[in-house]
Amino acid sequence: xxxxxxxxxxxxxxxxxxxxxxxxxxxxxxxxxxxxxxxxxxxxxxxxxxxxxxxxxxxxxxxxxxxxxxxxxxxxxxxxxxxxxxxxxxxxxxxxxxxxxxxxxxxxxxxxxxxxxxxxxxxxxxxxxxxxxxxxxxxxxxxxxxxxxxxxxxxxxxxxxxxxxxxxxxxxxxxxx
Length: 177
Hints:
The protein is mainly alpha-helical. The chain contains five helices and two strands; from the N terminus they run αββαααα. The chain has one domain (21-176).
């Protein structure tokens, strides 16, 4: 009988198994690294051509809500790098992750592999989202900061990809329980 409620389970009493990583995990890591490095390079490339102030926040209609110094262009790559490093570190200790099913000796390896795959995809989505936001900020800055035309597009890019990913994880986790 599968027991649900892994989120309430004592994480320090879970089996401490590190599942082997395969080529998919490597591709996800390399893709995340590429997105973060591209984001850093994009900021460095465009920084000299940016005006003294750039857009830092947009409303739902794509209008600029606030601005900041041009050096804030490096904030997106820095936060993206930090988040991706944290996600990768959590992959090293999967037993500390919150799960929807209780982790046992029998299902630990499969569940930890699913957690690692989920976190790998999260790294790709976070890296891509932060790169997208950075590109929108640069576009807004170059266009004079009036309107970057990002209204509903940012919501689609920021929210929609998470539904199939989380749907896959829940389905696979329940199936493997």
